[in-house]
């Protein structure tokens, strides 16, 4: 089943000098339940912009976005907020945690609008998810006193806690060491598989990208299939090239 479908999506913004910056130029992409998609691309190529449109946080300039077959453009904002809250889990590039709140409070936040056990047992559910990202001992620490990698893991726990059908992760291992990054990616995979969710991962790390089943590259606002085996080759041929894809 197709969860989210973008058709010929463009995004442009008007700059202060009255010129137009074309960030996305005609993107067509379908993401289905159980899919695992990776997107690589240079800094500034439009990856976060694309993820925000996939997650219905931002609207395209032209083109269409449909969630489970329903066009998003005409939905009232309250309905759209509910649709997003019920279905989408974001791991933001800048984490976007509430600074004065504890790790536990941050992870409980999305459960405030959930139903059933997820709502009534939200404290235990959130604590359990923090345990799974290796932060069981830090649940009462306020977010701004956590290290960057710990904040990233709180952000991941918050994205997963409501069992969203669409998980959107923007550089989810960017602040993590290799081992912690690998275990966090394993957790994202595991949770996505448990709930047959779709996982879209933006990353600069080839190993992270390789975990996905479909690989894309975003270049100057256009999406094309990426050949990771060639990228791996290029990264091992030259010592000076780190294992990242520009
Ligand atoms: N609202 C906006 N107004 C002006 N420029 C914008 C706006 N949103 C994005 N941009 C510009 O569009 C380009 C793409 O931004 P985006 O954040 O999507 O890139 P990215 O691929 O996620 O980069 P990075 O890898 O550095 O996170 C950037 O040059 C950015 O400055
Ligand atoms: Mg970005």
TrEMBL record:
The ABC transporter domain sits at: 4-245
Which keywords has UniProt assigned to this entry?
ATP-binding, Lipoprotein, Nucleotide-binding, Transport
Query: What Pfam families has UniProt attached to this entry?
Result: ABC_tran
- Report the SUPFAM superfamilies cross-referenced here: P-loop containing nucleoside triphosphate hydrolases
Q: Which PROSITE patterns match?
A: ABC_TRANSPORTER_1 (PS00211), ABC_TRANSPORTER_2 (PS50893)
Per its UniProt entry, which superkingdom is the organism in? Bacteria
The entry's protein name is ABC-type lipoprotein export system ATPase subunit
Query: What species is this protein from?
Result: Microbacterium murale
